[in-house]
Amino acid sequence: MVRLLALSSYFYQSFAAVLLIFALGYLLEPAQYTTYSLMIAVSQFAAVVAFEWIQLAGQRFLSSSNGEEAVRLRSSLFSALALSALALAVIAGFGALARAESASLIGLGLAVTIVQGATDLHYMTIRVSGRLAPASVLMICRATLLLLGAVVGAELYGTAESALLGLLAGHIFGLAAGSIVDRKLLGWSPRQTRRSDLSGFARYGMLASGASVVHLSVPILIRFLIIGRFGAASSSSAGFSMALDLLQRPFSVLLSAIHTISYPDVVSRFDNDTRAAARDAATDLFDLAMCSTAIMLGGLIAFIPDAARLFVPPALAPSFIAVTPSVAIFYFLHTHLQATLALVPHLEKAAMRLIVVAACQLALIAAFILVDRAADLGATATLLSAGLATGLVMGCASGPTVRFGAYPRPGLALSAIVGAGLIAALVLLPSEPLPWLLAKAAAAAFVTVAIAWAGNLLKL
To answer: Residue 84: what pLDDT?
Structure first.
């Protein structure tokens, strides 16, 4: 049941993020929403650059540690966080000096990035210490606070800055709640930090996070190129930005949930048990990851048009609906390249391989986009080209996983593909009147439950 609670917490976070996107689409003018969207994208990029290496190192080293070693490693992780936050503040300060007119936006983005990084690291230390249930409850509380904070800010003042300020308040309250549940962050002492630990974190974590930075550059590159074509103030740019904001969350959140549940066990078995035991644990992770995301892809294709008609502002709906299938396919492939196929290299601490794979994806997508621009193709064609390039890189990057011998059970994977196709085909059925929409949702739920039950994916 703890696994179910953890998955539910991530689904709730995804649901809250979707609600936030729809709400801000109504509360903010298109230009303000585009500014907010770009600022969030830059903030997330900065968070990956500054803090992802600490997260990755913490997950890899803390998952198989205990006792005094775990206490020392946690202290070193919090010290690394403080050093990275200081470096990020210095860089942001130079950015604010160079663009004085955007100083308030840069300052808010910096504050959101730092507080989010601290909260994420604290929640991660709680999860890998075996307290999955409290960590899951904390993530539900933080998602609620972020939603309320940003909506209240946007409702009161209707600007990108007010929405960012609401997000900042939500992260601060989330960090405070985590410190009440677990006081290790409040008890952090720099004196417990070991230089050898920081060096080990940097050697592994910075290379691994470098791959994440390159992977994150891909949707940012696509975003800026397409917004540059339509103009930041256009409804087409706002609709496209909303589709990117909306559809990146479900896949990344779901895979994060699955890694939260299963990755510590895989690492522990890889470090302390037999190769066969580690392979079995990795196979369970791949089963849950591939099947659940395939079903999610089918559900997004089937129901996003209905959601758009109900929740997306009419001015943004045409461009939003036009690109959602291609955006969903791209993010399905992109998140699996970034997370699922990176599992074995992470276990083997082959971080340089991750960077090479990410760089190949970025280079190939950039080449495809240049061809698309020369041919004057639209946003949908650009996204499909990015998906094709990502799929090609996935095929080339699957070698370590195949050699390790861990991959989804063929029968279960086939049933998930068929189920996803059946759910996606529901888009062809009418959604009005309301009983039709409810019938479609019931059919999708039945297929999902049947596959999860047959594959025992939740290990209930």
So the answer is: 86
pLDDT at 184: 65
132 Cβ partners below 8 Å, 6+ apart? 2, 5, 6, 260, 261
Q: Cα–chain-centroid distance for residue 253? A: 5
Say if pTM beats, i.e. exceeds, 0.85: no
The domains of the chain are located at 1-193, 205-460
Contacts of 204 (CB under 8 A, 6+ apart): 56, 57, 60, 61, 349, 351
Residue 164 has pLDDT above 80, yes or no: yes
Amino acid of residue 290:
M
The winner for highest mean pLDDT among 113-117, 264-268, 311-315, 449-453 is: 113-117
Burial class (CB in 10 A: 0-12, 13-18, 19+), 212: buried
Spatial contact of 204 and 60, defined as CB atoms under 8 Å apart = yes
The overall average pLDDT reported for the chain is 81
pLDDT digits 0-9 by tens, 10-65: 778 878 887 888 788 888 887 888 888 888 888 888 887 888 878 877 777 776 66
Amino acid making up residue 458: L
**Measured distance CA(286)–CA(428) in Å, rounded:** 30
**Which residue from 276, 277, 404 is spatially nearest to 340, judged by alpha carbons?**
404
